[in-house]
Amino acid sequence: MTPLQQRALTAAILAPLFLFAVYLGDVIFAVMIVAISLIGFAEWLGLARTGGEKILGLFYLGLPAFCLIWLRQQGLAPILMVILAVWLTDTGAYFAGRHFGGPKLAPKISPNKTWSGLIGGMVAAALVTGLVALAFRLEIWGVYFGVGAMLAVIAQIGDLFESHMKRRAGVKDSGKIMPGHGGVLDRIDGLLSAAPCFALFVWLMA
Q1: What confidence tens digit (pLDDT) does each residue in 148-164 have?
Q2: What's the CA angle centered on 60, arms 56 and 65, to 5 degrees?
Q3: What is the pLDDT, as a whole number, of residue 13?
Q4: DSSP letter string over 48-71?
Q5: What is the pLDDT, as a whole number, of residue 42?
Q6: Which residues of 174-194 are buried (b: 16+ CB within 10 A; e: fewer)?
Q7: Helix or strand (DSSP H, E) at 38
Q8: Half-sphere exposure (CA, 13 Å, Cβ side) for 126?
Q9: Which of the 8 DSSP states describes residue 103?
Q10: What is the number of other CB atoms lying within 10 angstroms of the CB of residue 2?
Q11: pTM of the predicted protein model
């Protein structure tokens, strides 16, 4: 099995389970988020160099966990928007980067990322966020296309930050818990930065 096939198989198994917990919400969703955050924190301790950085990990994972749980409490639409935006950012960036190539986004941190990939991720995130807003008949739903594009940029910044931490620690992945994907942080790095920003947006819009 190739790495891409292994990656796809893992996603096909875990994504529906994750989305089912998102749909159920309440305690089940909160417990899942806390469990994922604890695993991510253990991986962070392996990347951190100093005691200060290790303490920073509590904020790095704790704030997004709180924001995700809060977003789910606001309804299904907000949590779906931020999760799907981050997922589609990764997917759009991957396929756009492979198809168009071009200048590197941050070659010293993550050599495979390109500007075309970022644009592809922004388009994909904008579409999915706008469509979710339209499906749930949210007011000023058109705004969410722009919000999705901004979430893609924020998610990429989060991705690059974690890539910097891994490069500094001399490791390829933050862990090995997810075959084909690496560690938990490798999968949620974009969400860790996007969730607090989107939560702030939702709070301001309320």
Answers
A1: 999 999 999 999 999 99
A2: 140
A3: 81
A4: --SHHHHHHHHHHHHHHHHHHHHH
A5: 94
A6: bbebbeebbbbbbbbbbbbbb
A7: helix 26-47
A8: 14
A9: S
A10: 8
A11: 0.91
